[in-house]
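G., before I forget:
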Amino acid sequence: MAIWADENIRLLVQGITGHQGQFHTKAMQEFGTNVVAGVTPGKGGMQVHGVPVYNSVEDAMEKEPNASIVFVPAAFAKDAVIEALDAGIKMVVVITENIPFHDAMQFIHYAMYKKARVIGPNCPGIASPGKSKIGIFPNIIFSKGSVGIASRSGTLTYEIVAALSQAGIGQSTCIGLGGDPVTGTTFIDALKAFEEDEETKAIVMVGEIGGTAEEEAAEYIKKEVSKPVYAYIAGRTAPAGKRMGHAGAIISGSMGTAESKIKALEEAGVKVARFPYEIAELVKNDKEIW
Amino acid sequence: MKLFEYQGKELFRNYGIAVPKSVVVQSKEELEKIDMPFPWVLKAQVLVGGRGKAGGVKIASSIEEAKKAFDEIMGMEIKGERVKKILVEEKAEIEKEMYLSFFLDRSSRQYLMMFSPHGGVDIEAMKENVKKIYINPLIGLQSYHLRKLPKETRSIAGRLYRLFIEKDCELAEINPLAISGEAAIALDSKIIVDDNALYRHNELPKENAELTPLEKEAREKGIAFVQLDGNIGVIANGAGLTMATLDALNEFNGRGGVFLDLGGTDDPEKVKQALEIMVKAKPKVILINLFGGITKCDTVARGIMEFMEEHDTPPIVARIKGVNEDIAREMLKDYVIALDSFREVAKKAAELGG
């Protein structure tokens, strides 16, 4: 099973001829992803690691892609996402960072109208070990198993996944939601999908300061999630009003603090780790799962 | 990027939002040239809130009073921010003070228009009578949204919405919005523009006054860098990992002084640039916490080594995990205190930080 990224993915890479596009096309192929086409306007006819490049998504549709990953620079990202949605693609993973949030609001709402899923922006993508990866996670950290992970962070997630693998705990799907204030896929979307996924036995959330997504997730967990949930929240010592690297990681007034998130999650029965590496220990020692 | 009140009010004028007559001054001599009937209001131009309570706003009924108020306000520090400019404004007739804003509501993923018939206080303190009107970003503001507001504020709300969208704002706020008869007038402005959209707004001020000089330098080099009040400089790759490292330090009573997210890099030069700016912040100890995936550990190690050959640095404690970690550790063994675990490295850095 796994969620959203499985063995049936036929992937389109938008911005395939750029440095990142080329590098990660190869890495995704090595992971086992079926990359069927790429798009870079003006570069149609080329090949990148054996993948044919087209001038437009419409042209690339002859290869019947059912998902797309966007490496296009921030100023052109909205255009690329809308182009994919208009061509009928139902899942678009947006890696690009520094996209103006008004642009993101438009393509996220347009995706809702098109009944399509956007993952990101400003995210590492999604990976289901043994099936497919639509993203930039390092391949070596993963092992196949039954823990689902949803995270607002990149490298911190690699750290936590690697620690899980080292402890002998594999993953069903790992999804990076993105570090921006508004993302196409939320903790609640991921929790719902993991709850329904037969392969997933436990869920790990990696949150951070800013906004109230974790608090809302805690409410949802109370009502709808029966599987054990673990969490780590970054930014306990971050000062208010400073943007900590991610556009979305900012405490505004009294809103978005780590304390508020940890409290809400603990009240919902979530086990919250003090250090990232404690997640693997907590999951491993949980007698309820194993 | 936050705009100063006077910069926000210039935008308001361009959008036909009424503001009081005003002049921005930096010297007392400029006060003499102001041709405006008394009383005046002299307002410190700072980006932090709470300037009224701090004594940064004064009323003057004569040029003598204005000069005295100028002396009191100019150069004062409000929450650590020094006053460099004063806005001198004609005192407006006020019958009622209201509140109006547009911002991004992260939770609903919609634009939100907030209105209160009682302005002048912090919006977080407003509990009653606050109207929240959600706006779909694809559809935009409609007339029926505006009909939920008092008649005299509708035109100004429509104009403020247009500014919010066209200038890529995170927040466009008028508080207080003064009502005098049929007229509505913006007595203050609070505008935050999305940093990621500044590239398409050459018309906006270039100077981001919120950032420290080092933060500005870092931004120009594309390095995410935040100055904090401790003495341990943290370098990690990825914003989440950097924050997690600062949190871990705190568990051992260490205090982070710099947040530096190296990001994904395969270039030793970028590592050297990061260290260069870190050293300028004068931390007592530097903590490097690296998880190499796409970023190779030995690339970062090369950058550290080359930098330390050419420059003096405070002691560096490092934990380097991931691709090519063995090579990296071997390279750095005479340069840094290398430790294996997240916990150990945080503990050691906290000790050295004292």
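The two ends of chain A are 19 Å apart (CA to CA). Chain A touches chain B through 63 residues (CB under 8 Å).

More on Monday.
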